[in-house]
Structures are given as C-alpha cells and as structure tokens.
C-alpha cells in the first residue's frame, strides 16, 4: 500500500469513528429528551385532583406537602393527611377507595415523580419557600391541572435566569455540591 492510500484509509477510519460516536451521542440525547417528555405528565396510581383540593377547596400546598418549609424536599403527603378528610368525605369514589385501601393495608402509594432532578443537583424547597418563591414559579398553576405535569424546563439555564431575576446566588456550589 502506498503512502497516499494509507492516509486516505486512516482519514476514512477517523471519519467513521467520529460518525459512530456522534450517532451514539445523538441517540443518548434523543432518549433523554423522549424520557423527559414521557415523564412530563405521567399517569399516577391514584388520579389525585389538584383541581378540587387546590382549585375548589383552596388548600395551600403546605397543607399536604408538610415538609416543604423545614426540609430540602417537599415530599409526598403521608396518607394520614388524606385520611383526615377521607375517613368520611367522598368514600364512595373509586380513586378515594384506592387511597383508603392503601391506608388500611399500610402500603404507601407508589407516586411517579414529575419534578425529578438529577442526583448531582441540590435543590432545597425549604430555601425557596423561605425566600417566598411561589410554588407556581416552578410547578405552574396546579389548581388548573387535571394531571400534574412539568411546565418548566428545570434545567440549569432556566434556574440561573430565575436566580438572577430574584437576586439569588448563582455560585455553582449553591446547587452543585
């Protein structure tokens, strides 16, 4: 093989390698986009109506999400909070029956997380609540949602834009520990 042919073959190998890895990166990115789109408004094990509890009854987020003011995570409400009313209210409705059954069997409801962040992100609901950031700034108007869905990108650029607008720290260690 002459020198020119060797150079052409080497160049072709480099191009094929770049195409292979480029295609792999695009495939992984595509799967991430599809995953995030699919999880934006997942079907939950119990069709919980925020439209009723927040929209009609006017319950504050903190009524059910009791840890939001003193913990990094808002957390899922314990079934005892639900049962405070649903021992006697709407007990004949199928979704409430599911709730009662879980409570009686001492089995937590396996909710599907909608506002999930990567593990390398430190997000504290407590800090945001204390700074008087309204829940709807990130979660949208849940009072009008038939099913909870992600309405904000919850990506670094979006968060930094909000931090800048509110005069909050944009130091990397604020969110990345």
Helical residue percent band: 40-55%
Distance separating the two termini: 55 Å
Q: What is the makeup of the main sheet? A: none
Mean pLDDT: 86
Task: Give, in order, the helices and strands.
Answer: HHHHHHHH
Features:
177 residues, mainly alpha, 2 domains, 8 helices, 49% helix
Describe this protein's structure.
This protein is an all-alpha fold. It has two domains: 1-38; 43-76 and 111-174, no CATH class. The chain has eight helices and no strands. It has helices at residues 3-38, 50-56, 61-64, 79-86, 94-104, 125-130, 136-139, 156-166. Helix 4 crosses helix 5. It starts with a helix and ends in an 11-residue tail after the last helix. Residues 34-38 have low confidence and may be disordered.
Describe what is shown at a glance.
The protein has 177 residues and is mostly helical. It is 49% helix and 0% strand.
Topology:
Layout: H1 3-38, H2 50-56, H3 61-64, H4 79-86, H5 94-104, H6 125-130, H7 136-139, H8 156-166
Helix pairs in contact: 4-5
